[in-house]
Specification:
The complex is a heterodimer of chains A (998) and B (89).
Chain A lengths: L13 E10 L2 E7 L3 H7 L6 E2 L6 E2 L12 E6 L2 E7 L10 E4 L13 H4 L8 H5 L6 H13 L14 E13 L3 H12 L4 E4 L15 E2 L2 E2 H14 L3 E4 L2 E7 L3 E7 L14 E13 L3 E3 L12 E3 H11 L7 E5 L3 H11 L5 E4 L7 H8 L3 E4 L1 E7 L6 E6 L11 E4 L2 E5 L2 E3 L2 H5 L3 E5 L4 E6 L4 E3 L9 H20 L10 E2 L23 E3 L4 E2 H9 L5 H8 L12 H12 L3 H4 L13 H5 L16 H6 L2 E6 L2 E7 L6 H14 L2 E4 L4 E6 L3 H8 L12 E7 L5 E11 L2 E6 L4 H15 L6 E4 L4 E7 L3 H8 L15 E6 L2 E6 L8 E7 L3 H12 L5 E2 L2 H11 L46 E7 L11 E3 L12 E9 L4 E8 L9 E6 L4 E8 L14
Parallel strand pairs in A: 1-7, 8-9, 8-15, 9-12, 15-28, 17-24, 18-19, 18-24, 19-20, 34-44
Antiparallel strand pairs in A: 1-2, 3-4, 5-6, 5-7, 10-11, 10-29, 13-14, 14-15, 16-25, 21-22, 22-23, 26-27, 30-31, 32-33, 34-40, 35-38, 35-39, 36-37, 37-38, 40-43, 41-42, 42-43, 45-48, 45-50, 46-47, 46-49, 47-48, 49-50
Chain B lengths: L2 E4 L3 E4 L4 E5 L13 H8 L8 E7 L7 E7 L5 E6 L6
Antiparallel strand pairs in B: 1-2, 3-4, 4-5, 5-6
The chains are: A alpha+beta (998), B mainly beta (89).
Chain lengths: 998, 89
């Protein structure tokens, strides 16, 4: 197909490189440097989608980030992405895109029936109608609405693209590379400041690319090119195109999304798709320009109605005519600039100006070119369904209330200019108190909260001369503060045409007997009548009107609709616009890919994986791993077709009968040194620590100040002033911070140092009746007899030439030891233990067997120390000193903590000795009681007792002390189970603790 | 993201720190009789201040020191930071 609307000798596209692309299945041609929008317009395609609510045909309205209509589903390199603006998507060879929000096709859309039902679909319709009957919502209403609506479909496939995050600091960050941004960047760069200049479009220059101005004897475009070329050569400057600063956060942190690869058919090897920049800037210059404001009239959403600045950009940048019979509808001089460009390219526009008799250089030029200008004229309504065919126009009275006789005029596009709205989003996000500027009837930045300044059109200044002067000056002064350089810049002469005052006219009245839809918010289909309804129904706050009507709530965030909405509310409410106020601007300024936000933190990279030094051995020996915090631990070592239950039972049984070895490297370890170390332990733990001899370990429990158990573990006195503390795997980091808190803030007088050594030691727990026999062979030179190394004893040994620490401590309740070596020798230690242990039938055991062993011994762990229990609840009150003070002791006097029927740990056995009790089950007295059935306690941990070969659980039970022997029910509504149980002692196996001392 | 001046390391981003609550709370001395009210005030009762607030932060991914930060809870402005043992005038 030919590019019928492409003109010669205009535009910045590369005509040497033709690109082929597909839209809605049809193939078209464009050029390198096109956007999808410009290429479609070059081919005369104006119908790109259907509107959100009424499914009215929609075309292109803008040429960039402000586009409310042309949102497409993009297909690229086997991937698909929704919510892509055709006006921003650069063309590449093989691009494919489809319309969204239409079914079955954009040309024939069933949802368009909504357009004929529109009188039934006013503001709040969905809220009001689909409330009843309630059950219909999920089954009927929602699925239907979902099929008909939406801005595309998210891919369900894994995203193979890579996204990166980058952190950067700079002296001056500049948002936008129009005249203001370029001047500010140049001046600051000349002063040696570290500058980052960000431009969201592929081309630098902003308005200079399309405006007819001269700067220092060059065209504005050439001047911009020169400045950018020079900035690029400077080592203290980073210039980035395709990069949108979308968020302004606390303490001058701004976030920018750089589209690295979206303009290419596929992402280059080793390149990311997008890069998210977190920039901490000393100063920020916001030069984000302005967006043209529409004028509201009947059927103003018809394809072919677009912003006049967009029509000019399509012509000047892309060499594309948006129509051959354009009608320009304006209330200011900008519309004339567009008309003049049309005329220069042999197209005769008609200009309708709402003003009576405006005079300016631009208007004079238009007149001299012979352009047909109708003053005091408005467009009443666009005619045509899928494309503008003509316009109903009329003269308008001076008070703008009365329309003259309606005439119909043939046209194929209507270019609208309702003056300019400064883009104040970033300034507003930064906390700037925006103010309303009379004369342009828009909000501009006011009092700054952070180090930012807004200049140029974004500040409501539309004179190029003034913009350049203030921006050069700001760039110099901001950088001077930082670098202390003061290099003078010669400010170039500017030649621009003077404009006349714009006409404060924003909405064409309805002619008698007509009720055309006049849209305010084009993306969310919010019309003037919707806002009128909201106000009639009593909504007053602009924030409420916004939410009820969805005005400004679409993905374009009301870039073209906000001010017209405010004008309407202020008119109906008879208030001035500043009294109505604007809704809050929140980041992001424009939609950002979830992938870019997530960055590299996907899959395995979403959190670090910690592995013990013995990990590769576990892998080689069929370990099935489980996540323990960020550690990977063997859950069991699979033999043949064993499942978890069978494997862990075998491993636990082997510990009880022979000997097993478990990797306990993950336990937290803290090295404690200093003359006051014992005193610290005495204050941190609930039991006494001042008299622990060198070479001895002790079990301790530590509380939070509120009396709740924080953690437990053993601490060993290695030498006079040196202790080795162990914590649970989960609490290791918290315990270290806890100790540091007390040492640094509460008791700085204690002379103690603490440091984490979790990763410095590899640990192996050797447990079982044959563990001493094994230890003798591992350490033939050490006395490991019951006398030489008694329970809770500690010695250092020589493991085939490697220095080892041997602790006689036990979690399994068996005779057991824990051997630590420096991490690098972990694997060596493990292999030696397995090799020497072979004659004792050693087997490695994982966390599941470890749990089984501790549960049937009644040893508490994380499931009992769950942040809700005190020492008594865990039968640990024997470890609570009555003599000394310690962290949290005072809280233990609270009435609930000393109540007679306080909850306490118990053992639970099912009466049938067969049915395992799901963890989390509630214990109740009567399984038939009406709901809510009073809960007496809950099952904290369950196992299959290898000692008795039946299920056994631990529970935290109200008045547990007096409940032994009682029969209750364990109920798990989640698993649909009711199990009659008997309450027994939590010490199910070896209640006297003889084995650990044997 | 806040930008916090660690008195030991210099300006660092908030993600290197963890928040530690009101810095004006004083723990009652050990082995001292404490009334229920006093203890409750220490453990539980906090003022949710609007405006200038002295709070604790720990530079967990840096020097691991606990520091005091004077911050406005409304504007997030940070006025001053102090070492753990520095008196706040």
């Amino acid at each position: 197909m030919t590019q019928a609307f492409r003109i010669e000798n205009e535009g910045l596209i590369n005509r040497d490189k033709k690109l082929s692309f597909k839209f809605n299945g049809k193939t078209y041609l464009g050029y390198e440097g096109d956007t999808l929008a410009s290429a479609l317009l070059a081919n005369g395609v104006h119908l790109v989608g259907r509107s959100f609510k009424y499914h009215r045909p929609r075309g292109f309205f803008g040429a960039g980030v402000d586009e409310p209509y042309a949102v497409v589903q993009l297909y690229r390199n086997g991937e698909t992405e929704p919510n892509i603006k055709a006006t921003e998507q650069e063309l590449f060879e093989g691009l494919e895109a489809k319309s969204v929000n239409c079914w079955p096709s954009v040309n024939f859309d069933i949802g368009a029936i909504n357009n004929f039902l529109k009188i039934f679909l006013p503001a709040g319709f969905y809220y009001k109608t689909f409330m009843w009957p309630k059950s219909f919502w999920y089954r009927i209403y929602e699925p239907f609405i979902r099929k008909a609506a939406g801005l595309g479909v998210a891919s369900t496939k894994h995203d193979n693209e890579r996204y990166e995050h980058k952190y950067e600091h700079c002296d001056l960050l500049i948002a936008g590379s129009g005249p203001s941004g370029l001047a500010g960047a140049y001046a600051a760069a000349k002063n040696g400041a570290k500058v980052i200049l960000a431009e969201d479009k592929p081309r630098f220059g902003g308005s200079l690319l399309t405006s007819d101005v001269n700067i220092g004897n060059q065209s504005g475009k050439d001047w911009a090119e020169g400045i950018i070329a020079e900035l690029k050569t400077m080592p203290n400057v980073v210039v980035k195109n395709r990069s949108q600063i979308f968020g302004y956060y606390d303490h001058n942190m701004l976030v920018m999304s750089e589209k690295v690869s979206d303009h290419l058919p596929s992402t280059k090897k080793y390149h990311p798709n997008k890069r998210l920049w977190y920039i901490r800037a000393k100063e920020v210059l916001i030069s984000s320009g302005s967006i043209e404001r529409p004028i509201v009239f009947g059927n103003n959403d018809t394809p072919g109605v677009m912003l006049s600045s967009a029509a000019k950009e399509y012509l000047k940048v892309y060499g594309v005519l948006v129509g051959r019979k354009p009608l320009v509808f304006t209330n200011n001089d900008s519309g004339y600039e567009t008309a003049i460009e049309f005329k220069k390219h042999g197209v005769d526009p008609v200009v309708l100006d709402t003003r009576k008799n405006p005079e300016s250089e631009i208007i004079d030029e238009a007149k001299n070119l012979g352009i047909n200008i109708k003053n005091s004229y408005v467009v009443v309504a666009a005619q045509g369904y899928k494309k503008v065919k003509s316009a109903d126009i009329a003269s308008i009275s001076e008070d703008k209330k009365q329309l003259g006789k309606i005439e119909n005029i043939q046209c194929d596009c209507i270019c609208v200019s309702g003056f300019w709205t400064p883009t104040i989003h970033l300034a507003s996000q930064s906390g700037n108190k925006t103010k309303f500027k009379e004369g342009i009837d828009a909000f501009v930045p006011g009092q700054s909260k952070q180090n930012e300044i807004t200049l140029g059109a974004a500040n409501g200044v539309f004179s190029l001369d003034e913009t350049l002067k203030t921006s050069f000056k700001a760039g110099s002064e901001l950088s001077k503060k930082i670098t202390e350089n003061d290099n003078e810049i010669a400010i170039p002469n500017v030649v621009e045409k003077k404009s006349s005052q714009y006409d404060k006219f924003w909405c064409v009245p309805l002619p008698k007997g007509k009720n055309y839809k006049r849209f305010l918010d084009f993306q969310n289909d919010v019309a003037v009548s919707d806002v009128e309804i909201a106000l009639r129904e009593g909504y007053r706050s602009i924030e409420h009107v916004k939410r009820y009507t969805t005005l400004g709530m679409a993905t374009d965030q009301g870039k073209t609709s906000n001010l017209n909405g405010l004008q309407l509310v202020s008119e109906i409410e008879n208030k001035v616009v500043p009294a109505v106020g604007h809704t809050t601007f929140r980041p992001p300024y424009t939609p950002v890919s979830i992938g870019a936000i997530v960055g590299r933190e996907v899959g395995k990279h979403s959190k670090p994986t910690r592995k013990s030094p013995m990990h590769s051995w576990h892998e080689k020996n069929n370990a099935v791993f489980v996540d323990a915090g960020i550690w990977l631990r063997p859950r069991y070592y699979k033999r043949g077709n064993e499942n978890l239950f069978e494997g862990s039972k075998r491993e636990a049984k082997n510990v009880r009968t022979n000997v097993g070895v478990c990797d306990v490297t993950t336990l937290g370890k803290i090295d404690i040194k200093g003359p006051d170390a014992a005193e610290l332990l005495n204050r941190v733990y609930t039991n006494a620590w001042l008299k622990l001899p060198v070479g001895k370990a002790r079990y301790g429990v530590m509380l939070r100040e509120d009396g709740i158990v924080m953690d437990d573990g053993t601490t060993t006195r290695i030498s006079e002033n040196h202790y080795h503390m162990t914590t649970t795997t989960a609490q290791a980091a918290n315990v270290l911070s806890h100790l540091e808190y007390y040492l640094q803030l509460v008791w700085p007088e204690l002379n103690v140092n603490v440091v984490s050594t979790t990763e410095q030691w590899a640990g192996a727990a050797i447990a079982g009746p044959k563990s001493r026999d094994l230890l003798k062979k591992l350490f033939p030179n050490s006395d490991v007899s019951n006398e030489g190394l008694p329970f809770m004893g500690y010695i250092e040994g020589d493991l085939f030439g490697v220095k080892a620490r041997i602790y006689r401590i036990s979690f399994s309740g068996e005779l057991a030891y824990e051997v630590n070596v420096e991490s690098d020798y972990g694997n060596f230690m493990w292999e030696k233990i397995m090799e020497v242990g072979e004659e004792f039938n050693i087997q490695p055991y994982g966390t599941e067997a470890l749990s089984t062993l501790r549960i049937e011994m009644g040893h508490v762990a994380g499931s009992e120390l769950d942040g809700r229990t005190i020492p008594f609840d865990n039968a640990l009150e024997g470890l609570v000193s009555k003599k000394k003070d310690f962290i949290g002791k005072r809280s233990l006097q609270r009435s609930a903590f000393i109540a007679e029927d306080r909850q306490r740990i118990v053992g639970v056995v099912p009466l049938d000795k067969q049915t395992s009790i799901p963890e989390g089950s509630h214990l109740v007295k009567d399984d038939k009681a009406p709901l809510p059935n009073p809960k007496l306690g809950h099952i904290s941990a369950s196992c299959w007792s290898v000692e008795y070969d039946n299920p056994f659980s631990l529970a935290i039970l109200k008045d547990g002390k007096n409940m032994i022997g009682q029969k209750l029910f364990a109920m798990s509504p989640l698993k649909n189970k009711v199990i009659p149980v008997e309450i027994v002692s939590s010490h199910y196996v070896d209640p006297k603790g003889e084995r650990v001392r044997s | 993201m806040l930008y916090i001046n660690c008195p030991h390391c210099g300006m660092r981003s908030q993600n290197e720190f963890s928040y530690g609550g009101d810095a004006s709370v004083k723990r009652p001395e050990l082995n001292k009789e404490v009334s229920d009210q006093e203890w409750d005030n220490f453990v539980y009762n906090r003022k949710s201040l609007r405006g200038k607030h002295l709070e604790l932060w720990q530079h967990i991914s840096g020097c691991r020191q606990w520091i005091k930060v004077e911050r406005d809870t409304v504007t997030h402005e940070i006025f001053r930071t102090f070492k753990a043992d520095e008196e706040v005038a």
